[in-house]
Write a structure and sequence with these properties.
Helices cover about 50% and strands about 10% of the residues. The protein has about 500 residues and is an alpha+beta fold. It has a single domain, classed as Orthogonal Bundle (Cytochrome p450). Helix 9 packs antiparallel against helix 13. The structure holds protoporphyrin IX containing FE. The site of protoporphyrin IX containing FE has 29 residues, from helix 13 and helix 19.
Length: about 500
Protein backbone atom coordinates (compact mmCIF):
# COMPACT_ATOMS: atom_id res chain seq x y z
CA UNK A 1 0.00 0.00 0.00
CA UNK A 2 2.69 2.50 1.10
CA UNK A 3 4.87 1.48 -1.84
CA UNK A 4 2.09 2.01 -4.38
CA UNK A 5 1.24 5.39 -2.81
CA UNK A 6 4.89 6.37 -3.07
CA UNK A 7 5.11 5.22 -6.71
CA UNK A 8 1.96 7.18 -7.63
CA UNK A 9 3.28 10.26 -5.84
CA UNK A 10 6.62 10.07 -7.66
CA UNK A 11 4.89 9.48 -11.02
CA UNK A 12 2.57 12.47 -10.55
CA UNK A 13 5.53 14.66 -9.51
CA UNK A 14 7.55 13.57 -12.55
CA UNK A 15 4.63 14.16 -14.92
CA UNK A 16 3.89 17.60 -13.45
CA UNK A 17 7.54 18.43 -13.74
CA UNK A 18 7.80 17.20 -17.33
CA UNK A 19 4.91 19.45 -18.37
CA UNK A 20 6.05 22.40 -16.30
CA UNK A 21 7.53 25.21 -18.37
CA UNK A 22 9.54 28.34 -17.47
CA UNK A 23 9.90 28.61 -13.71
CA UNK A 24 9.42 24.92 -12.99
CA UNK A 25 6.95 22.94 -10.99
CA UNK A 26 5.31 25.75 -9.00
CA UNK A 27 4.57 27.62 -12.24
CA UNK A 28 2.49 24.94 -13.93
CA UNK A 29 -0.70 25.75 -15.86
CA UNK A 30 0.86 28.75 -17.55
CA UNK A 31 1.19 30.73 -14.31
CA UNK A 32 4.18 32.57 -15.77
CA UNK A 33 2.22 33.61 -18.89
CA UNK A 34 -0.55 35.69 -17.37
CA UNK A 35 0.82 38.86 -18.97
CA UNK A 36 1.60 39.56 -22.60
CA UNK A 37 5.29 38.90 -21.85
CA UNK A 38 5.97 35.54 -20.16
CA UNK A 39 8.33 35.45 -17.18
CA UNK A 40 11.36 33.33 -18.14
CA UNK A 41 13.00 30.96 -15.70
CA UNK A 42 14.66 27.60 -15.07
CA UNK A 43 12.86 24.28 -15.09
CA UNK A 44 14.51 23.14 -11.86
CA UNK A 45 14.23 19.63 -10.43
CA UNK A 46 11.11 17.56 -9.82
CA UNK A 47 9.62 18.23 -6.36
CA UNK A 48 12.46 20.56 -5.30
CA UNK A 49 12.48 23.04 -8.18
CA UNK A 50 15.45 25.37 -7.66
CA UNK A 51 15.60 24.89 -3.89
CA UNK A 52 19.23 23.76 -3.95
CA UNK A 53 20.27 27.15 -5.33
CA UNK A 54 18.97 28.80 -2.19
CA UNK A 55 19.84 26.14 0.33
CA UNK A 56 23.59 26.23 -0.05
CA UNK A 57 26.44 28.52 -1.00
CA UNK A 58 26.00 32.09 -2.04
CA UNK A 59 22.42 32.29 -3.32
CA UNK A 60 22.76 35.91 -4.51
CA UNK A 61 25.64 34.95 -6.81
CA UNK A 62 23.97 31.77 -8.12
CA UNK A 63 20.69 33.58 -8.80
CA UNK A 64 22.57 36.42 -10.51
CA UNK A 65 24.34 34.07 -12.91
CA UNK A 66 21.15 32.07 -13.56
CA UNK A 67 19.30 35.28 -14.44
CA UNK A 68 22.19 36.43 -16.60
CA UNK A 69 22.45 33.20 -18.64
CA UNK A 70 18.67 33.07 -19.18
CA UNK A 71 18.40 36.75 -20.15
CA UNK A 72 16.06 37.03 -17.18
CA UNK A 73 17.58 39.92 -15.25
CA UNK A 74 14.37 41.96 -15.40
CA UNK A 75 12.53 39.12 -13.74
CA UNK A 76 13.12 35.38 -13.38
CA UNK A 77 10.52 32.85 -12.27
CA UNK A 78 11.63 29.80 -10.31
CA UNK A 79 10.24 27.23 -7.93
CA UNK A 80 11.14 26.73 -4.30
CA UNK A 81 9.50 23.36 -3.84
CA UNK A 82 5.83 24.14 -4.32
CA UNK A 83 6.33 27.88 -3.73
CA UNK A 84 6.39 30.07 -6.85
CA UNK A 85 9.07 32.75 -6.64
CA UNK A 86 10.44 35.57 -8.78
CA UNK A 87 13.66 37.51 -8.48
CA UNK A 88 14.39 40.94 -9.96
CA UNK A 89 18.01 41.79 -10.81
CA UNK A 90 17.28 45.10 -12.44
CA UNK A 91 16.62 48.49 -10.75
CA UNK A 92 13.48 49.24 -12.71
CA UNK A 93 11.65 46.00 -11.89
CA UNK A 94 13.02 46.15 -8.33
CA UNK A 95 11.39 49.55 -7.85
CA UNK A 96 8.07 48.32 -9.21
CA UNK A 97 8.08 45.41 -6.78
CA UNK A 98 9.36 47.11 -3.64
CA UNK A 99 7.17 50.18 -3.93
CA UNK A 100 3.97 48.42 -4.99
CA UNK A 101 1.25 48.29 -2.31
CA UNK A 102 0.53 44.77 -3.53
CA UNK A 103 3.92 43.63 -2.20
CA UNK A 104 3.57 45.04 1.30
CA UNK A 105 3.39 41.56 2.88
CA UNK A 106 6.19 39.11 3.57
CA UNK A 107 6.08 35.33 3.38
CA UNK A 108 6.64 34.19 6.94
CA UNK A 109 9.10 31.43 7.72
CA UNK A 110 8.25 28.79 10.27
CA UNK A 111 11.09 29.95 12.53
CA UNK A 112 9.93 33.57 12.43
CA UNK A 113 6.38 32.49 13.28
CA UNK A 114 7.55 30.29 16.13
CA UNK A 115 9.77 33.06 17.47
CA UNK A 116 6.70 35.37 17.69
CA UNK A 117 7.93 37.58 14.89
CA UNK A 118 4.54 37.59 13.19
CA UNK A 119 3.69 40.29 15.78
CA UNK A 120 6.88 42.27 15.11
CA UNK A 121 7.36 44.98 12.47
CA UNK A 122 9.26 42.87 9.95
CA UNK A 123 6.71 40.10 9.52
CA UNK A 124 3.39 41.53 10.67
CA UNK A 125 1.08 41.44 7.66
CA UNK A 126 0.15 44.71 6.02
CA UNK A 127 -2.83 46.06 7.96
CA UNK A 128 -3.84 48.25 10.90
CA UNK A 129 -1.47 46.63 13.39
CA UNK A 130 1.58 46.81 11.11
CA UNK A 131 0.79 50.42 10.16
CA UNK A 132 0.58 51.26 13.85
CA UNK A 133 4.02 49.71 14.44
CA UNK A 134 5.52 51.65 11.52
CA UNK A 135 3.98 54.85 12.90
CA UNK A 136 5.42 54.17 16.36
CA UNK A 137 8.83 53.45 14.85
CA UNK A 138 8.98 56.58 12.70
CA UNK A 139 7.52 59.03 15.19
CA UNK A 140 8.99 57.61 18.40
CA UNK A 141 11.68 54.92 18.13
CA UNK A 142 13.72 56.14 15.16
CA UNK A 143 12.78 59.82 15.09
CA UNK A 144 15.78 62.08 14.32
CA UNK A 145 15.55 63.56 17.83
CA UNK A 146 15.74 60.15 19.46
CA UNK A 147 18.67 59.04 17.28
CA UNK A 148 20.52 62.24 18.17
CA UNK A 149 19.75 61.82 21.86
CA UNK A 150 21.35 58.35 21.83
CA UNK A 151 24.69 59.68 20.58
CA UNK A 152 26.34 59.57 24.04
CA UNK A 153 25.64 55.81 24.02
CA UNK A 154 27.37 55.36 20.66
CA UNK A 155 30.34 57.40 21.93
CA UNK A 156 30.49 55.33 25.12
CA UNK A 157 30.40 52.01 23.26
CA UNK A 158 33.18 53.25 21.00
CA UNK A 159 35.31 54.33 23.98
CA UNK A 160 35.10 50.78 25.40
CA UNK A 161 35.89 49.32 21.97
CA UNK A 162 38.90 51.65 21.59
CA UNK A 163 40.39 50.51 24.92
CA UNK A 164 39.83 46.83 24.09
CA UNK A 165 41.36 47.18 20.62
CA UNK A 166 44.41 49.00 21.98
CA UNK A 167 44.99 46.35 24.62
CA UNK A 168 44.55 43.43 22.19
CA UNK A 169 47.01 45.11 19.80
CA UNK A 170 49.53 45.56 22.63
CA UNK A 171 49.13 41.97 23.77
CA UNK A 172 48.93 40.11 20.45
CA UNK A 173 50.44 42.43 17.84
CA UNK A 174 47.21 42.40 15.81
CA UNK A 175 43.46 42.78 16.31
CA UNK A 176 40.61 40.52 15.35
CA UNK A 177 38.02 43.23 14.96
CA UNK A 178 34.70 41.39 14.73
CA UNK A 179 34.22 40.53 18.41
CA UNK A 180 34.87 44.16 19.42
CA UNK A 181 32.34 45.40 16.87
CA UNK A 182 29.79 42.80 17.91
CA UNK A 183 30.08 43.68 21.59
CA UNK A 184 29.80 47.40 20.80
CA UNK A 185 26.81 46.78 18.50
CA UNK A 186 25.05 44.56 21.04
CA UNK A 187 25.60 47.04 23.85
CA UNK A 188 24.56 49.89 21.61
CA UNK A 189 21.30 48.29 20.61
CA UNK A 190 20.66 46.99 24.16
CA UNK A 191 21.23 50.56 25.36
CA UNK A 192 18.79 52.06 22.85
CA UNK A 193 16.16 49.34 23.24
CA UNK A 194 16.39 48.30 26.91
CA UNK A 195 18.52 51.05 28.46
CA UNK A 196 21.00 48.37 29.54
CA UNK A 197 24.70 47.90 28.80
CA UNK A 198 26.97 45.03 29.75
CA UNK A 199 30.53 45.07 31.02
CA UNK A 200 32.20 41.75 30.13
CA UNK A 201 34.32 41.98 33.30
CA UNK A 202 31.34 42.32 35.63
CA UNK A 203 28.32 40.90 33.87
CA UNK A 204 29.95 37.99 32.09
CA UNK A 205 27.20 35.46 33.03
CA UNK A 206 24.29 37.61 31.92
CA UNK A 207 26.15 38.79 28.82
CA UNK A 208 27.00 35.23 27.78
CA UNK A 209 23.36 34.18 28.21
CA UNK A 210 22.20 37.12 26.07
CA UNK A 211 24.82 36.50 23.38
CA UNK A 212 23.85 32.86 23.26
CA UNK A 213 20.15 33.70 22.88
CA UNK A 214 20.85 36.23 20.13
CA UNK A 215 23.08 33.75 18.31
CA UNK A 216 20.49 30.98 18.60
CA UNK A 217 17.83 33.32 17.17
CA UNK A 218 20.15 34.33 14.32
CA UNK A 219 20.90 30.70 13.52
CA UNK A 220 17.22 29.77 13.54
CA UNK A 221 16.10 32.71 11.41
CA UNK A 222 19.04 32.37 9.04
CA UNK A 223 18.89 28.56 8.73
CA UNK A 224 17.53 27.23 5.47
CA UNK A 225 14.42 25.32 6.53
CA UNK A 226 13.31 22.86 3.87
CA UNK A 227 9.81 22.56 5.27
CA UNK A 228 9.15 26.27 4.60
CA UNK A 229 8.89 25.20 0.96
CA UNK A 230 8.00 21.51 1.17
CA UNK A 231 5.76 21.43 4.25
CA UNK A 232 5.27 17.64 4.40
CA UNK A 233 9.04 17.15 4.60
CA UNK A 234 9.07 18.21 8.27
CA UNK A 235 7.61 14.80 9.18
CA UNK A 236 10.74 13.09 7.85
CA UNK A 237 13.51 15.65 7.76
CA UNK A 238 14.29 18.55 10.07
CA UNK A 239 18.08 18.68 10.28
CA UNK A 240 18.11 21.94 12.24
CA UNK A 241 15.35 20.88 14.67
CA UNK A 242 13.82 24.29 14.02
CA UNK A 243 10.53 23.75 15.85
CA UNK A 244 12.12 22.18 18.91
CA UNK A 245 14.82 24.86 19.20
CA UNK A 246 12.32 27.70 18.72
CA UNK A 247 10.12 26.21 21.45
CA UNK A 248 13.11 26.17 23.78
CA UNK A 249 14.18 29.73 22.94
CA UNK A 250 10.83 31.56 23.18
CA UNK A 251 10.30 31.16 26.96
CA UNK A 252 13.86 32.34 27.63
CA UNK A 253 13.33 35.43 25.48
CA UNK A 254 9.96 36.14 27.10
CA UNK A 255 11.46 35.84 30.56
CA UNK A 256 14.38 38.16 29.81
CA UNK A 257 12.30 40.83 28.12
CA UNK A 258 9.48 40.67 30.69
CA UNK A 259 11.92 41.16 33.56
CA UNK A 260 13.28 44.25 31.81
CA UNK A 261 9.75 45.57 31.18
CA UNK A 262 8.88 45.01 34.85
CA UNK A 263 12.01 46.87 35.96
CA UNK A 264 11.00 49.79 33.77
CA UNK A 265 7.46 49.77 35.14
CA UNK A 266 8.78 49.83 38.70
CA UNK A 267 11.12 52.69 37.97
CA UNK A 268 8.19 55.12 38.03
CA UNK A 269 7.33 58.07 35.80
CA UNK A 270 6.09 57.36 32.29
CA UNK A 271 7.07 60.81 31.02
CA UNK A 272 9.67 60.08 28.35
CA UNK A 273 12.62 62.27 27.50
CA UNK A 274 14.38 62.27 24.09
CA UNK A 275 17.00 59.82 25.28
CA UNK A 276 14.50 57.35 26.73
CA UNK A 277 14.96 53.73 25.69
CA UNK A 278 12.44 51.86 23.51
CA UNK A 279 10.84 50.09 26.51
CA UNK A 280 10.01 53.41 28.17
CA UNK A 281 8.71 54.75 24.87
CA UNK A 282 6.41 51.75 24.34
CA UNK A 283 5.20 51.85 27.96
CA UNK A 284 4.34 55.53 27.61
CA UNK A 285 2.03 55.03 24.64
CA UNK A 286 -1.65 55.62 25.27
CA UNK A 287 -4.95 54.89 23.57
CA UNK A 288 -4.85 53.14 20.23
CA UNK A 289 -1.04 53.22 20.18
CA UNK A 290 -0.77 51.10 23.35
CA UNK A 291 0.67 47.61 22.76
CA UNK A 292 -0.01 44.55 24.87
CA UNK A 293 2.92 42.88 26.59
CA UNK A 294 3.37 40.00 24.13
CA UNK A 295 3.46 42.44 21.22
CA UNK A 296 6.01 44.56 23.05
CA UNK A 297 8.21 41.51 23.60
CA UNK A 298 8.06 40.70 19.86
CA UNK A 299 8.80 44.28 18.74
CA UNK A 300 11.65 44.79 21.20
CA UNK A 301 13.29 41.44 20.55
CA UNK A 302 13.15 41.96 16.79
CA UNK A 303 15.11 45.20 17.19
CA UNK A 304 17.92 43.30 18.92
CA UNK A 305 18.08 40.88 15.98
CA UNK A 306 17.89 43.42 13.22
CA UNK A 307 20.12 46.03 14.75
CA UNK A 308 23.06 44.06 16.11
CA UNK A 309 24.75 42.12 13.36
CA UNK A 310 23.97 44.42 10.45
CA UNK A 311 25.93 47.35 11.90
CA UNK A 312 28.84 45.22 13.16
CA UNK A 313 29.24 43.31 9.89
CA UNK A 314 28.97 46.39 7.71
CA UNK A 315 31.67 48.13 9.78
CA UNK A 316 33.89 45.05 9.41
CA UNK A 317 33.50 45.12 5.60
CA UNK A 318 34.39 48.84 5.54
CA UNK A 319 37.52 48.24 7.60
CA UNK A 320 38.55 45.26 5.45
CA UNK A 321 38.38 47.43 2.33
CA UNK A 322 40.37 50.16 4.10
CA UNK A 323 43.12 47.70 5.03
CA UNK A 324 43.26 46.50 1.43
CA UNK A 325 43.22 50.04 0.02
CA UNK A 326 45.72 51.99 2.08
CA UNK A 327 45.49 55.01 -0.23
CA UNK A 328 41.75 55.30 0.48
CA UNK A 329 42.41 54.98 4.22
CA UNK A 330 44.99 57.79 4.04
CA UNK A 331 42.64 60.02 2.07
CA UNK A 332 39.89 59.40 4.63
CA UNK A 333 42.26 60.18 7.51
CA UNK A 334 43.18 63.47 5.86
CA UNK A 335 39.51 64.38 5.65
CA UNK A 336 39.03 63.47 9.31
CA UNK A 337 42.10 65.42 10.38
CA UNK A 338 40.87 68.69 8.93
CA UNK A 339 37.32 68.13 10.19
CA UNK A 340 38.28 67.31 13.77
CA UNK A 341 40.93 70.01 14.35
CA UNK A 342 41.09 69.48 18.11
CA UNK A 343 37.40 68.69 18.61
CA UNK A 344 35.89 65.28 19.18
CA UNK A 345 34.23 63.43 16.35
CA UNK A 346 30.48 63.72 16.68
CA UNK A 347 27.51 62.58 14.59
CA UNK A 348 27.14 66.15 13.34
CA UNK A 349 30.77 66.32 12.17
CA UNK A 350 30.63 62.86 10.61
CA UNK A 351 27.47 63.65 8.62
CA UNK A 352 29.36 66.43 6.85
CA UNK A 353 32.30 64.30 5.65
CA UNK A 354 31.68 63.52 1.97
CA UNK A 355 34.55 61.09 1.54
CA UNK A 356 33.61 59.07 4.64
CA UNK A 357 30.00 58.89 3.44
CA UNK A 358 31.30 57.78 0.00
CA UNK A 359 33.42 55.01 1.58
CA UNK A 360 30.35 53.70 3.42
CA UNK A 361 28.18 53.87 0.30
CA UNK A 362 30.81 52.06 -1.73
CA UNK A 363 30.97 49.32 0.91
CA UNK A 364 27.19 49.00 0.86
CA UNK A 365 27.43 48.68 -2.92
CA UNK A 366 30.18 46.06 -3.02
CA UNK A 367 29.05 44.18 0.10
CA UNK A 368 25.33 44.79 0.68
CA UNK A 369 24.65 43.21 4.11
CA UNK A 370 21.39 41.75 2.76
CA UNK A 371 22.32 40.87 -0.83
CA UNK A 372 18.81 39.52 -1.44
CA UNK A 373 17.41 42.21 0.86
CA UNK A 374 17.14 39.51 3.53
CA UNK A 375 13.38 39.30 3.70
CA UNK A 376 11.25 38.58 0.65
CA UNK A 377 7.86 40.11 -0.22
CA UNK A 378 4.61 38.39 -1.05
CA UNK A 379 2.20 39.38 -3.85
CA UNK A 380 -1.29 39.87 -2.41
CA UNK A 381 -2.91 40.12 -5.87
CA UNK A 382 -1.87 39.78 -9.52
CA UNK A 383 0.57 42.58 -10.29
CA UNK A 384 1.02 43.97 -13.79
CA UNK A 385 4.54 45.24 -14.48
CA UNK A 386 5.36 47.91 -17.03
CA UNK A 387 7.32 45.39 -19.16
CA UNK A 388 4.17 43.38 -19.86
CA UNK A 389 4.80 40.63 -17.29
CA UNK A 390 2.24 39.76 -14.63
CA UNK A 391 3.30 38.41 -11.24
CA UNK A 392 0.43 36.25 -9.98
CA UNK A 393 -0.98 36.59 -6.44
CA UNK A 394 0.80 34.54 -3.74
CA UNK A 395 4.16 34.69 -5.49
CA UNK A 396 7.21 35.24 -3.30
CA UNK A 397 9.21 38.16 -4.73
CA UNK A 398 12.87 38.86 -4.11
CA UNK A 399 15.21 41.60 -5.22
CA UNK A 400 18.79 40.64 -5.92
CA UNK A 401 20.45 43.87 -4.77
CA UNK A 402 23.89 42.26 -5.10
CA UNK A 403 23.22 41.53 -8.80
CA UNK A 404 22.14 45.14 -9.38
CA UNK A 405 25.15 46.63 -7.61
CA UNK A 406 27.48 44.35 -9.59
CA UNK A 407 25.89 44.89 -12.99
CA UNK A 408 28.21 46.66 -15.44
CA UNK A 409 25.17 48.18 -17.19
CA UNK A 410 24.32 49.95 -13.95
CA UNK A 411 27.75 50.63 -12.43
CA UNK A 412 31.01 51.29 -14.24
CA UNK A 413 33.71 48.79 -13.19
CA UNK A 414 31.36 47.27 -10.63
CA UNK A 415 33.98 45.01 -9.06
CA UNK A 416 36.39 47.85 -8.29
CA UNK A 417 36.20 49.48 -4.84
CA UNK A 418 36.13 53.16 -5.72
CA UNK A 419 34.44 55.61 -3.28
CA UNK A 420 35.25 58.46 -5.70
CA UNK A 421 32.34 57.32 -7.86
CA UNK A 422 30.10 58.97 -5.23
CA UNK A 423 32.11 62.17 -4.79
CA UNK A 424 32.97 62.80 -8.42
CA UNK A 425 29.76 61.56 -10.02
CA UNK A 426 26.13 62.20 -9.20
CA UNK A 427 25.17 61.54 -5.58
CA UNK A 428 23.09 58.46 -4.86
CA UNK A 429 20.46 58.17 -2.14
CA UNK A 430 21.01 54.81 -0.40
CA UNK A 431 17.91 55.07 1.77
CA UNK A 432 15.49 53.66 -0.78
CA UNK A 433 15.21 56.56 -3.24
CA UNK A 434 17.49 55.10 -5.91
CA UNK A 435 17.12 51.43 -6.75
CA UNK A 436 20.63 51.23 -8.22
CA UNK A 437 21.77 51.08 -4.60
CA UNK A 438 19.04 50.31 -2.09
CA UNK A 439 20.68 48.15 0.61
CA UNK A 440 17.90 49.08 3.06
CA UNK A 441 15.13 48.14 0.64
CA UNK A 442 12.50 50.63 -0.51
CA UNK A 443 8.82 51.44 -0.32
CA UNK A 444 6.52 50.94 2.65
CA UNK A 445 8.60 48.17 4.15
CA UNK A 446 11.95 49.97 3.81
CA UNK A 447 14.23 49.43 6.83
CA UNK A 448 13.04 51.72 9.65
CA UNK A 449 16.48 51.45 11.32
CA UNK A 450 18.41 52.76 8.30
CA UNK A 451 19.29 56.16 9.80
CA UNK A 452 20.36 54.63 13.10
CA UNK A 453 22.46 52.03 11.22
CA UNK A 454 24.14 54.65 9.02
CA UNK A 455 24.85 57.05 11.87
CA UNK A 456 26.39 54.27 13.99
CA UNK A 457 28.59 52.87 11.22
CA UNK A 458 29.66 56.39 10.18
CA UNK A 459 30.72 57.38 13.70
CA UNK A 460 32.55 54.14 14.43
CA UNK A 461 34.44 54.01 11.12
CA UNK A 462 35.46 57.67 11.53
CA UNK A 463 36.75 57.00 15.04
CA UNK A 464 38.48 53.73 14.15
CA UNK A 465 40.40 55.48 11.38
CA UNK A 466 41.09 58.60 13.44
CA UNK A 467 42.49 56.67 16.40
CA UNK A 468 44.39 53.88 14.62
CA UNK A 469 46.29 53.20 11.44
CA UNK A 470 45.03 49.90 10.10
CA UNK A 471 47.68 47.79 8.35
CA UNK A 472 47.65 44.24 7.00
CA UNK A 473 48.33 41.37 9.41
CA UNK A 474 51.09 39.30 7.77
CA UNK A 475 49.75 36.05 9.26
CA UNK A 476 46.15 36.58 8.14
CA UNK A 477 45.80 38.38 4.84
CA UNK A 478 42.47 40.08 4.16
CA UNK A 479 40.15 37.62 2.46
CA UNK A 480 36.93 39.05 1.03
CA UNK A 481 35.20 35.65 0.69
CA UNK A 482 31.59 35.78 1.82
CA UNK A 483 29.29 33.55 3.78
CA UNK A 484 25.55 34.13 3.57
CA UNK A 485 23.69 33.74 6.84
CA UNK A 486 21.00 36.11 8.05
CA UNK A 487 23.39 38.78 6.70
CA UNK A 488 26.28 38.36 4.29
CA UNK A 489 29.43 38.34 6.37
CA UNK A 490 33.18 37.92 5.86
CA UNK A 491 33.90 34.19 5.81
CA UNK A 492 37.23 34.79 7.51
CA UNK A 493 36.89 37.54 10.12
CA UNK A 494 39.17 40.52 9.58
CA UNK A 495 42.48 40.55 11.40
CA UNK A 496 44.68 43.65 11.10
CA UNK A 497 47.46 45.56 12.79
CA UNK A 498 46.04 48.61 14.59
CA UNK A 499 48.75 51.19 15.28
CA UNK A 500 47.40 53.75 17.77
CA UNK A 501 47.23 57.44 16.86
CA UNK A 502 45.44 60.16 18.78
CA UNK A 503 44.70 57.68 21.59
CA UNK A 504 44.44 59.22 25.04
CA UNK A 505 43.66 56.88 27.94
C1 LIG B 1 23.52 48.41 8.15
C2 LIG B 1 22.40 48.26 8.77
C3 LIG B 1 21.11 47.69 8.20
C4 LIG B 1 20.80 47.17 6.97
C5 LIG B 1 21.73 47.01 5.76
C6 LIG B 1 19.40 46.80 6.98
C7 LIG B 1 18.71 46.23 5.90
C8 LIG B 1 17.35 45.97 5.91
C9 LIG B 1 16.62 45.47 4.75
C10 LIG B 1 17.22 45.19 3.38
C11 LIG B 1 15.31 45.33 5.11
C12 LIG B 1 14.15 44.86 4.21
C13 LIG B 1 13.57 46.09 3.50
C14 LIG B 1 12.53 45.81 2.42
O1 LIG B 1 11.86 44.78 2.40
O2 LIG B 1 12.38 46.70 1.53
C15 LIG B 1 15.21 45.72 6.52
C16 LIG B 1 14.05 45.70 7.25
C17 LIG B 1 13.99 46.00 8.58
N1 LIG B 1 15.02 46.49 9.38
FE1 LIG B 1 16.92 46.89 8.78
N2 LIG B 1 18.88 47.09 8.22
C18 LIG B 1 19.89 47.64 8.99
C19 LIG B 1 19.78 48.10 10.30
C20 LIG B 1 18.65 48.01 11.06
C21 LIG B 1 18.54 48.46 12.44
C22 LIG B 1 19.68 49.13 13.21
C23 LIG B 1 17.27 48.17 12.86
C24 LIG B 1 16.62 48.38 14.18
C25 LIG B 1 17.23 48.53 15.32
C26 LIG B 1 16.57 47.57 11.73
C27 LIG B 1 15.25 47.15 11.75
C28 LIG B 1 14.54 46.66 10.65
C29 LIG B 1 13.14 46.27 10.70
C30 LIG B 1 12.23 46.31 11.94
C31 LIG B 1 12.78 45.88 9.40
C32 LIG B 1 11.42 45.38 8.91
C33 LIG B 1 10.60 46.51 8.31
C34 LIG B 1 9.21 46.07 7.82
O3 LIG B 1 9.04 44.96 7.34
O4 LIG B 1 8.27 46.90 7.92
N3 LIG B 1 17.44 47.48 10.67
N4 LIG B 1 16.47 46.12 6.96
Amino acid sequence: MILSLLISFISVSLLTWAFAVGGGIAWKNGRNKKGKTPIPGPHGLPIFGSLFVLSRGLAHRSLASMAQTRAATQLMAFSLGSTPAVVASDPHTAREILTSPHFANRPIKQSAKSLMFSRAIGFAPNGTYWRLLRKISSSHLFSPRRILAHEPGRQLDFAVMLRNIASEQKLSGSVSLRKHLQLAALNNIMGSVFGKRYDPAQDSGELEELREMVKEGFDLLGAFNWSDYIPWLSYFYDPFRVVERCEALVPRVRKLVRVIIEEHKLSGSRKVSDNADFVDVLLSLEGEEKLNEDDMVAVLWEMIFRGTDTTALLTEWVMAELVLHQEIQTKLREELKSAVAGNTLTDAVVAKLPYLQAVIKETLRVHPPGPLLSWARLATSDVQLSNGMVIPANTTAMVNMWAITHDSHVWEEPHVFKPERFTEGADVDVRGGDLRLAPFGAGRRVCPGKNLGLVTVGLWVAKLVHHFEWGPDGDHTVDLSEVLKLSCEMKHPLSAVASPRNVVF
